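Memo to structure team: turn this sequence into structure tokens by end of day. - J.P.
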Amino acid sequence: MAEEEFDVIVVGLGPGGEDVAGRLAEAGLRVAGVEAGLVGGECPYWGCVPSKMMIRAADMIAETRRVPDMAGQATVSPDWSPVAKRIREEATDDWNDKVAADRFTGKGGHLVRGRARITGPGRVTVDGERVLRARRGIVLASGSQPVVPPIPGLADTPYWTNHQAIETETVPESLIVVGGGAIGAELAQVFARFGSAVTVIEAQDRILSMEEPEAGELIGRVFAAEGVDIRTRARAAEVSHDGSRFTLRTEGGDTVRGERLLVATGRRSDLAALGVAAAGLDESARFVPTDGRMRAAEGVWALGDIAGKGAFTHMSMYHANIVVNDILGEPVHEAEYHAVPRVSFTDPEVGAVGLTEAQARAKGLDVRTSVSPLETSSRGWIHRAEGLIKLVADGPVLVGATSVGPSGGEVLGMLTLAVHARIPVERLSQMIYAYPTFHRAVEDAVRRL
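Reply from structure team:
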């Protein structure tokens, strides 16, 4: 087969891959961007953007329902049609990537559609028939896919992943959510607020189990108050579908029935399908290890989900900047991961950065913690808001923090800076906190340390 030569081949045009490919093309390199799905990836079509549209709409319903306690009388009749319309027309162009594809090719990039597989040093084969050769190197940015656990019977049913949940034109009368992590929790709350009878099946002892216990327990109480049935320490043993409804049986013998079933049990990268062994990498690994410049092997860079540092759009964009600078020979500040922020966009939001208390103790650090209810800030009390600030310090310096509240992800900004810059706790106690703001609860938490 004839080979087509490029300076750089970028495998996967999600947010990070598209950024790398576009910027390298603008810099004058001959760049091939290989994408099997939609240019732009998970984030604009099924992840960040449309899901937050759903969450925004659901939050408006909840806020309306709070009016009688504070401002008079109000009623709301949930209607999914404007939500589906906005996702279809404003966020995804009906899942058409022409705008993104034209954006990339307009920068001088060469778009190659199909599934890429590394077939030798600097060599990528697309759909088994088109061979691309990279003079400088290959950038792996192929993202991740939903994990579908091997639950007996599940594969033979019309279950949902987050894709079908985002694309739905109607709200199911009842919904079973398998998995209580960020994606499962966010979508469970959305559909419950739009009228679904929602049951969450979570194997751990709380939802959002990767976060601080105080955060997961608070969100669990909020969900229960909103009518979401949360079943923790529960594992799905069998799933069936009779043509109209799902039946899920747990290992404990409980049975749950629902019109729809959403699988939200994490994501993974398929390194074997990508053919990383041909580049000297372990295809059985969970992720591709990289150095601080995102180099995985000679002439190979990896970024985003497959680098194993967090399946976040902001992580892929952070990596992308490092990769571009390294390839172009520009100064590179090598990757740091001590202050990685993350937000679960439930209501209240759960923002976290750095280490949890459990992670810090596992590292043998000199751990000190404090927890401050959000109502210690006047704004939290005014809003009757549920939330908290938790700080984790190693001696005099913060190494982790959690911000739960109506603007938890926004309050997290100052905490991310504090952890990233390793600002001493004493210095944080000396700053001026605007009054009355949610982030004044941070001041109280600092004082409690």
